[in-house]
Amino acid sequence: MRLLIVADTHVPKRARALPDEVWRHAESADVVVHAGDWVELSLLDEFEARSKRLIGVYGNNDGPELRARLPEVARAELDGLRLAVVHETGAATGREKRCAEQFPDADVLVFGHSHIPWDTVADNGLRLLNPGSPTDRRRQPECTYLTASIERGELTDVELHGLPRR
């Protein structure tokens, strides 16, 4: 099972559109995971139209229309892997411990908000992933997103992709 993992797309405020590379992955992935801050409802509609399966949440920059269609926290079982998705996890300090307590039944937690890529494992085995942002690098050297695979309940082939500056 192939995944595309994105967050903090901020279309059209930070970019007019997502890079074509991200759309190619969205169209070929079995599941697209979006950890919030879509900004415009039209982007959610486009992801739904171009993805086989979409799992998403709203972020702090998402208004009432997006909040009406998306949950604050999403959970799914994908080929035996227990996935949770949320936009904000709080400060980096203590994140693993805090998230392990808040998501004890998840194997992987995808989050966004900081625009900073993150890949760590909590003491209880919970893997925390933040794909960064494909449109707004903030203080990072480049815009980013993640791809991964799931094989028999295990997350594999996690790859952080950097995007060229536009």
UniProtKB/TrEMBL annotation:
Its EC number is 3.1.4.-. Keywords: Metal-binding. Its cofactor is a divalent metal cation. Pfam families: Metallophos_2. Residues 1-152 form the Calcineurin-like phosphoesterase domain. The keyword Glycoprotein does not apply. GO terms for molecular function: hydrolase activity; metal ion binding. It is an enzyme of class 3 (hydrolase). Belongs to the metallophosphoesterase superfamily. YfcE family. PANTHER family: VACUOLAR SORTING PROTEIN VPS29 (PTHR11124). This is Phosphoesterase. It comes from Amycolatopsis acidicola.
